[in-house]
Write a structure and sequence with these properties.
With 89 residues, the chain is mostly helical. It has helices spanning 8-23, 44-53, 62-65, 69-76, 83-86. The protein has a domain at 44-86.
Length: 89
Amino acid sequence: MAMAKRNLFDELMEGVAAMKGHRAGKITLRSYKVEPRELPEVKPKMIKQVRARLHSVARSQVPGHIRAAGAIGKIANSGRSGASTLHGR
């Protein structure tokens, strides 16, 4: 049984129209509130250890592998340590 070809643009535009109607108070859309999770504590030493373990993975992909992209960015941008400290140089 062959599936019908979808028109993604029409589906997206239908969603945009629904959001516009919701903002105008004309329709009610289902909504959820999600509490943000705490970022794990990540120290530069841990990053170096994980990087050594994931030596075949590109450096830019390491945060995704340890699910700590936000925490690593926070350390890198905090001024406490330079990028060279994070990369073990």
